[in-house]
Design a protein that fits this description.
mainly beta; binds (2R,3S,4R,5S)-2-(hydroxymethyl)piperidine-3,4,5-triol
Length: 383
């Protein structure tokens, strides 16, 4: 037997290489789990629960382009954020033809899990597009489990805010403007009409569109759903009920007509910081940042938080979440996806330290880094 052939046979018999223990983040590199397989958790969020981190993301299929869900939401767990153990599929799609809203072939994006202390339930929210309808359904959906790793039971989907005007919506905006439906898209008059509720009025009865989303739990235990709404023109922030499974009906707009998606939210020094992207499909663009003293706004735009080479494409990535690092005060981790539309399973993860300079969020590229960066002296958060 020739030597290279013998080597290949031995390698195949040995199975996937046992993963080496990782001691740092390597943004953009293949990220092996405990089996040596690249993490399959795209558009992810992280839950910290009883000393462990749980990563939840979209499971992609080898060789399948497009974004139709075939399997569901993949879960991994970790104690150190570098090394991830495969915990399997936390929420499985229903069989094709079952008629379920989450049947195989639907679009299931950006899952985020939070723990509800009152009910003892883990609550997963995600963006749901119904099978065969492209991105038209624009729904948000919820599933629950008694265990962090699942299995999660699908509860239902929503168009939030049905029959409810956002806070501060002016009386004059509740009636359609003459000829508003004929306004040409992307013109100054049209932008003004969007900012003054054109799409909010359109979707008032059926509920507002909800695409890219995140969930944020505040210090007082109240949870909020933030989603790209109004054809991705305006972000909506909506309060969740105490069980985190429904909406209270109290909601507001953020950056009306600003064309933001990929929202990620954190709280630092009593202020709320929101990172978003622009809307260019799977292609990366420059991130945006906002700050507010109340979660209900007003939100002040702070510009692109990224600096240095490739800042104009957020280092070729799009935000998905901000993770407060457990046990390290004022330490935040920016999580983003480097999408690979031609082979989505090869999508890479761009995790970077999110720092604050003069009250502004900052992202800088690092080929490799450790949580030790948060031990270095940094400006304190002030209220
Ligand atoms: C960008 C979004 O952020 C993704 O989650 C996904 O919805 C794609 N757009 C679809 O084009």
């Amino acid at each position: 037997m020739k030597k290279p052939f013998l080597f290949a046979v031995l390698l195949a018999l040995a199975g996937p290489a046992a993963a080496q223990k990782l001691t740092a983040f390597h943004p953009g590199a293949v990220w092996p789990d405990n089996h040596g397989t690249h993490l399959n958790a795209h558009g992810a969020g992280v839950l910290f629960d009883k000393g462990r981190y749980y990563l939840f993301g979209e499971h992609k299929i080898a060789g399948l382009t497009g974004n139709r869900a075939q399997v569901g939401v993949h879960c991994y767990s970790s104690r150190d954020l570098y090394n991830w153990r495969d915990e399997g599929i936390a929420l499985a799609v229903a069989p094709a033809g079952s008629g379920s809203e989450i049947e195989q072939g639907c679009v299931l994006e950006r899952p985020k899990v939070v723990f509800n202390k009152k009910t003892g339930q883990y609550v997963m929210w995600f963006h749901l597009e119904l099978k065969g309808r492209g991105y038209a359904a624009a729904r948000t959906a919820v599933a629950v489990s008694g265990k962090a790793t699942g299995p999660y039971r699908y509860v239902r989907s929503y168009r939030p805010g049905a029959g409810q005007w956002p806070l501060g919506f002016q009386e004059a905006w509740k009636q359609p403007l003459p000829g508003e439906k004929d306004l040409k898209w992307w013109t100054p008059d049209w932008y003004r009409a969007v900012a003054e509720g054109l799409f909010v009025r359109r979707d008032f009865a059926q509920g507002q569109m909800a695409r890219d989303m995140t969930i944020f739990v505040d210090d007082d235990g109240k949870a909020y759903h933030v989603s790209a709404s109004e054809d991705n023109l305006t972000l909506h922030l909506a309060e969740l009920t105490t069980d985190y499974q429904d909406f209270t009906g109290r909601w507001n707009t953020i950056a009306p007509a600003g064309h933001n998606e990929a929202p990620a939210l954190c709280k630092r020094g009593g202020k709320y910081y929101l990172l978003t992207s622009g809307c260019t499909g799977w292609a990366p663009n420059a991130a945006r940042s906002f700050v507010a003293s109340s979660i209900w706004g007003p939100w002040q735009a702070l510009g692109n938080p990224a600096v240095g080479p490739d800042a104009d494409s957020t280092f070729h990535s799009q935000s998905t979440a901000i993770l407060p690092v457990a046990g390290r005060p004022d330490a935040f981790l920016f999580m983003a996806d480097r999408w690979v539309p031609k082979n989505p399973i090869d999508g890479r993860y761009i995790w970077l330290p999110l720092t604050f300079e003069d009250g502004r969020p900052r992202l800088r590229w690092a080929d490799t880094w450790t949580l030790g960066v948060f031990d270095q002296p940094r400006p304190a958060a002030t209220q």
